[in-house]
Amino acid sequence: MTERLRALAAWLKGLLYKEKFTCAVCGAELYEDAYFCARCRAQLPYNTGCVCSKCGRAVAEEAPVCLECKAHMPSYDRARSAFCYEGALVPLIKKFKTGGRHLAAALADAMLPVLQREFADADLLVGVPMTRRARRRRGYDQSRLLAEALSARSGIPLEASLLVKTRETAAQKKLSRRERAENLKGSFRVHERVKCRGKRILVIDDVLTTGATASAVAEALLRAGAARVCVLTAASVPYALLRAGGEKAVF
To answer: Where are the strands (E) in the chain, listed by range?
Structure first.
């Protein structure tokens, strides 16, 4: 099935099943134009407390940078997220990655205020790309869906073909930070460097775990002449949870 046919099938499914009128977390029927019921909305782990000024992870107290960033300073300028990757967000993100493409709209709505507050001066948006084989396997690129939804909401243009992933990489979830960085080395390439030069670029992704992917993407964009690279994700793993799991990924 081609990309165009998949998009058409998803649109028709949305018309028939009206996913937006059931809660994206618990599935309860909604009687308003919303994505979450009042109960789930109140329980969602919004990332609104103290955060690291660099990676945007939830931290116990305000500090210039978290110990993780001190030990492994990211290549991007700064990152922020709408949610903490815990509680109800864990199954929601997993559902988004495994067929729930309609959830891009709900997540983008939550990410938009963060974009407007932190990155309103961005010149363009870029999603973290997948290889063609990986996209065919999943049926869609979840980061691109988020980037498309945020571009439509914010008016900031999306350069969907600016960045490409040049090769398949091993699954990240069982790798340490060092292994992730080595796994991703040289796997991203800027396709049209002229569109990158001097631009303030905002990279969109679903989850910030160790930050290895975001750093690899930022390095490719900066080498191509970007003036600044920032990162916005739907969720980020809190510092305490990341450290409690050691260097291994927590999902």
So the answer is: 79-84, 124-127, 163-165, 188-190, 200-208, 228-236
17-34 pLDDT per residue, tens: 444 578 888 888 887 767
Smallest Cα–Cα separation from 82: which of 55, 109, 54?
A: 109
Query: What is the token pair recorded at 129?
Result: 């790309």
* Sequence spans of domains, the chain: 1-43, 45-244
Return all residues near 224 (Cβ < 8 A) that are at least 6 apart. 190, 193, 196, 197
Specify the CATH class of 45-244 in words.
Answer: alpha beta
Prediction pTM value: 0.84
Token look-up 């493409």 returns: 101
For 129-165, letters b (16+ CB in 10 Å) and e give bbbeeebeeeebbbbbbbbbbbbeebebebbeebbbb
